[in-house]
Amino acid sequence: MAKNISLDARADALEQKMSDELDVLLSKSALFNMADGKLGASNAGSDLAARHGKYYLMADDPRLPRMPAKPTLADFFDYRAKGINHLLQSATHALKASMPEKTILACLLHDISNAIFIKSDHGYWGAQLVEPYVDEEVSWAIRAHQALRFFPDESVGYSYPEMYVKNFGPDYVPDDYIKDAYQRARNHKWYMTARMITVHDIYSFDPKAVVSWEPFIDIVGRNFKQPDEGLGFDNSPVSHMWRTIRRPTKYL
Ligand SMILES: [Fe+2]
Ligand SMILES: [Fe+2]
């Protein structure tokens, strides 16, 4: 217990030091506070004295790389993403298998949510993020890969991933909504497109393989409708999601 308190105190001190070094106050999402063990905690006091005269951040977070005013998909990968290698490896695998461009794009973007936003239900979030900008088949496949990943299809050599046994235990059973989504996808005309994401969604790739964006620049150009105003400013149904990823600590 004492150890926990001192760890908490140290974390608070570090946080205080970080915020002292900024001339604005940073707000934290409910998710962040939950992870931090501060469920229900409020942000700094509302009176100016307690805030040492600082205002809440309503612009770019100074701790993050500054993004261009009209950000493109590539900018989000450059300035906000982690784990892009997995996406490039999957897309490279699909390219080498001479898959159609739509499938290659789906492989390239299938885990975009994990890379720039959130892991839980990532297939759904990822599909929604790109939906206004890609062919319906691409976003449908990205959404469906979430469920299909858990179900083998020996006809294309796809088995239940070893990594899931390691990560979730041998007795893990997917939630009912995932089972239902699998059944719906299984009977859908685009089933095989989503299935191909899982086939090329490889966790063990040649570690010496050199992957890059280069082979995909034209494919993205032809198949991702980049809005002129920049992602986040095109008044699409998902603009707010891109804006939040750009400025995740904006107070409101
Ligand atoms: Fe995935
Ligand atoms: Fe993946």
- Residue-averaged pLDDT, rounded? 90
Assembly form of the protein: single chain
Estimated structural class: mainly alpha
What fraction strand?
A: under 5%
Q: What's the short version?
A:
The protein is mainly alpha-helical and 252 residues long.
Topology (SSEs and partners):
Blueprint: H1 2-21, E1 24-25, H2 30-35, E2 55-56, H3 73-80, H4 84-96, H5 101-109, H6 112-116, H7 122-130, H8 136-148, H9 162-168, H10 176-186, H11 191-200, H12 217-223, H13 239-246
Helix pairs in contact: 4-5, 5-8, 5-11, 7-8, 8-10, 8-11
Describe the structure.
The chain has 252 residues and is mainly α. It is 50% helix and 2% strand. α2 links the parallel β1 and β2 (55-56). It has 2 domains: 2-56, no CATH class; 73-246, Hypothetical protein af1432 (Orthogonal Bundle). α4 packs antiparallel against α5 (101-109) and α5 (101-109) crosses α11. It binds fe (ii) ion (FE2) (2 copies).
